[in-house]
Amino acid sequence: MGYFRRIYDVSRSILIGMGVTLKHMLTPETVITKQYIGLKTPVGTGLLAKALGVTRDANKVELNHQYCAICAAAKKLGMGDDPHEPTTDPVAVYDRYYRPDDKISKPIPLDYLPARHRGLHYLETEKCIMCFQCARACPVDCIDIEGTREMTPGLEGAHRGDKVNLTRFTIDYSLCIFCDHCTLACPDKQVCIHMGKEFDMTSFTQGNLVKNLLTDLPFSKDDRALVMKHRAEIDRIEEEKKKAKEAAKKEAAAKAAAAKAAGPAAPAAPPAAKPPEPPKK
Amino acid sequence: MIPLLAEALNPNPAGPTGVLWLVQKLVGPDAFERWGGTLTLVGSLGILLLLVVPIVATLFPLFAIWLERKVSAHMQSRLGPMEVGWHGWLQTLADGIKLLGKEDIIPAGADKPLFILGPIITLAGVFVMLAVMPMGPHLIPADLNLGLFFLAAAGSIEVIGVMMAGWASNNKWSLFGTMRLATQLVSYEVPLGISFVTVTAMAGSLSMQEIVRQQHGWIWNWFIFRNPVMPLVFIIYFTASLAETKRAPFDLPEAESELVAGFHTEYSGMRFSIFFLAEYVAMYVVAAIAAVIFLGGWHTGIGPFDAWIQGASGGWGGEDPSLAMAVIANLVGMHVVFAKAWVLIFVQMWLRWTLPRIRLDQVMDLCLKFLLPASVVFFMVTIGWELLPFESWTSDIPFIKDHLQWRLPRFAVFLVYSCLVGYWFFWFKRTFQDPFKRSVKEKPWVISGVSTT
Amino acid sequence: MAIPQELHRDVRTEEFLLNMGPQHPSTHGVLRVVVRTDGELVLEATPHVGYLHRCFEKCAENTTWKQVVPYTDRMDYLAAMCNNITYTLAVEKLMGWEKLIPRKTTIVRTLLFELQRIASHLMSIGTYGLDVGAITPFLHCFRERERLLEIFEEVSGQRLNYSYITPGGFQYPWPDAINRKIKGFCEYFEERITEYNDLLSYNGIFIERTKSIGVLSPQQARAYGCTGPMLRGSGIARDLRWDQPYLLYDELKKEGVFRVRYQGDKTPDPRDQMVDWSLGELGDCWSRYMVRAAELEQSRRIVLACLAKLDKLTDSEKEAGAGNIIKEADRAYTAPKGEEAYFKSENPRGELGYYVVSDGKPKAYRVKARAPSFNNLQVLTEISRGAMVADLIAIIGSIDIVLGEVDR
To answer: What is d(CA B223, CA B221) in angstroms, rounded to the nearest whole number?
Structure first.
């Protein structure tokens, strides 16, 4: 009896399973494929574009929610008509992300990516004060910052009053783990580093993965030359300062020796005032 | 030729002129003799066959692979190929071109002659089976009078090819696949053969065309309804054929998640595509065999229509048909066979994407403990049924005596099984309902088929 | 050089030495299993691990407490929220911030823990079906996972390695508008569970494939230190959420929202999916798989309960729980030298524990992770003796390992 029972059980379960797959095949609302081809390859505006629910408006991409099961569930429960709307405030400087030039793949404002999506970074260079908090907060040390900062005398400490001259602000995406600690470490008053929505940074060489946030392009030979020049400049300035200091010291020593030689009555020369040193990187 | 020319240039024509005259001469009632009689009918159908068989053999896999990908995709909540051609129908062609461009790698320690021969023999074994597949009333490359036996024999050649491929790969995993394969294929030939024998017992002949001819008339004349157990024999045949073509749930030899690709792991490029091609042509062949021997072949199941096809296609010693009608009738028959085969192929794909894989010892269990005894028992029942004297039993009942007498059992079987299938679809209708209507709160969820204590 | 002793023993001619190498479709990562078989029968299967070792614990020694959080994500990448939460709770225990965490934060953490459990179990069920040969349930599970990953992306910005829950609270404020999206998902998911059971769990062929395979007796499970569904599949009703509650589980336990699902559980509960445990043997693959499938439904109910609690919060509580309450939590903070803390939680795979030691500096002195998959994997040799090669795949799938955890 168990022999026939087993046949019956197995056959019945197989038939039930077949019913489930047939149901899936015949109901289009279960399809979940999000097709990206409308973004990278041209689909035109014809039948195919309509079928895929992709509009060709240059920077706008809409998804077809006609068959979305979540929207259907939400509708059923009377929870409003579009649970897919962004649930967080969009980043205020979102507009800045539209770049008209095509040196890099055109950033596509993917509307269906949520506002908090952690993509490639971009920097508001005019706000940056070179406080290095982002570089320190990074768990993998992928942020490289170089530049000079002239302190306003009497207002030591990084803030907007200083003249900041950034020569290098790169993020090495072969190291970056997209944890977003850098944006949170940026001081409250001037949040200048953001993670955008671009996620595509394919390249043929590893060198191209280092992105220069000052130009939003890969860190190139010209950039490198600029940085070397800046470093050479700083070295030169420091050399000069060192020479001047030594010269001043020699002078002071010579003066002191001269004063000593002149006699105990001559007043001691005041010590040479040391000029304020620029902060070391 | 000359009388024809004279008639063409006749200044005072009697009947239609111009194009109509030409058409009448080409395909009209007396065209048959003009074209040379029976010989030309066979010749023209032969030309048709020359076109159809290669098309079946090469274009069919093209579409079958595309269909499989789309069917599997839609069952899995995705879209499948969409880029190449409308909804991706040229995808297989693109893949074929890609495979052609691949490097032909033969592993270092591989047995080179066997490695190269393996796929060829597999494909040859499968193609050879197409020689006796009827596609229409007179569309069959070779109507052997032991057609069914030939099919069983040719199906075994595939086994050798696959074994050669697996052994020659010099790969332990391929060897695993091969050993599993040999056991599986060889043992499932037994229930397959016994279901062939059951059909032969009913038809009285091994010839494929004869088997189809015996199913003429209405739908309950099909062999699947002749007997209460014939649908079960059909299921046994279908299961055994799934095992023969190594389709899931019997795809242990090429188990994707266990052995990477089983016996064809080491094959790449065109050699792999030969295996692939062989698999899909084998799918068509077994589906077509089922259509022919169980489901009536090129009979649609509607009596008068079938009679027309039979008559118009070249008869059996009947009236001379016109050539155009003969070709059309044969093509209609061919499409009927294809339609039935496609439905069965869809069921094969459906099963593949629903069921998990059966382990080898369970495969052998299934064959030896379930299919084999069942097929033998059904064979006995069939023979016994054939001997039952239904006519003498129903010779007194007035209505049945006149109209249904010898057809009553098959009519009854047809009714009962259609009701069962209808009930199954109706019962499944609930799965097509709006999912949010059928909530768990209605009744506690009961596990299928097993008692809860 | 003389042939080493092990090789002498290993080189035999009547047996088959098979290498299920690090690259294999079914080993759930880079796991190497060296199998000695007699035809199809497995005599010995030895797992070799270490192919995914990334020196996570060493890296943690060079980073501050908050910076370790992205590293914990990548350990068990399929249950990243759970790893984040466990580590966060360990550090909060270390720093003594446990009483300071507001109620909303606790509720949200529980919610995310259970959502992550659903995602992880979906993955485990789907890939288990794939190992056994059923390809369709895998894609159905991934369709559900896609919904969950969309939710996670709205919350944290990433789909897989969130690093959203940090010591002190969250990295960004909890977006309240997402509650209704999660509720919609739960409603939609109810029907899907029935579908999975129809398609895979109670499929006759699947049951034949997994019944009485890889039987792990309760004594063995205890001896090897297995935890999670491995333990519950062998009939031992141990669940850290029930026995040593953390986060909100105490409250949920009292309200009767969930209970421990284990093999042989005969509690009639009309709200739960009734599972017929008689279909499987004690400790076999089917039981372990079914524990995970049953926990899907349970986690769904816990998520709904948490959402209800979130709705009932007062405004002040909502205010308090927005974001990170500890001011210094974004910078580098220190614990007194010599402080240590161990925190364990019920990961989808078992008991996950973090042992953190401080030496008074802002950098973490020692972070040790007790990964459940590492302990669970040990039993492979024991339970696969006498199985067939196809069963070996099923057994590895039922242990549900994640190599990121095993190798760290």
So the answer is: 6
Closest-CA residue of chain A to C151: A114
Q: Which two tokens stand for residue B349?
A: 């794909």
**Whether residue B321 has a cis bond before it, omega within 30° of 0:** no
Query: Model pTM?
Result: 0.82
- Output the pLDDT for position B435: 37
Is residue C348 a part of any domain in this protein?
yes
CATH number of domain containing C263: 1.10.645.10
Residue C244: per-residue pLDDT = 92
CA distance B238 to B188: 11
Q: Which long-range contacts (CB under 8 A, 24 or more apart) does B110-115 make?
A: B110/B168, B110/B169, B110/B170, B110/B266, B111/B167, B111/B168, B111/B170, B112/B168, B114/B164, B114/B165, B114/B167, B114/B168, B115/B164, B115/B165, B115/B168, B115/B169, B115/B266
Judge whether residue C24 has pLDDT over 60: yes
CB-CB neighbors (< 8 A) of C304 in chain B:
none
Would you call B448 and A12 a contact, using CB atoms and an 8 Å cutoff? yes
The encoded tokens of residue C147 equal: 């919904």
Name the domain count of chain C: 1
B90 and B118, same structural domain?
yes
Please state, rounded to an integer, the average pLDDT across all residues of chain C: 86
Same domain, B323 and B220: yes
Torsion of CA B205, B211, B214, B216, to 10 degrees: -170
Residue C195: phi, psi to the nearest 5? -65, -40
Question: Is residue B10 domain-shared with residue B72, that is, in the same domain?
Answer: no
Q: Which C residues, 60 through 119, put their C-beta within 8 Å of a C-beta on chain A?
A: 63, 66-71, 74
Give the nearest partner residue to C205 out of B252, B355, B435, using CB atoms.
B355
Domain region containing B406? 394-418
Q: Across the interface, do B354 and A21 touch by the CB < 8 Å criterion?
A: yes
| One domain for residues B249 and B303 | yes
Q: Is residue B451 part of a domain?
A: no
Residue B444 pLDDT exceeds 50:
no
| Domain extent at residue C276 | 56-371
Statement to judge: residues B278 and B412 lie in one domain: no
ipTM confidence:
0.86
**Best residue in B69, B72, B74, B89 to probe A by mutation, most A CBs within 10 Å?**
B74
Question: Are residue B350 and residue B408 in the same domain, yes or no?
Answer: no
* CA–CA min distance B72, chain A (Å): 8
B123 Cα to chain A: minimum distance (Å): 31
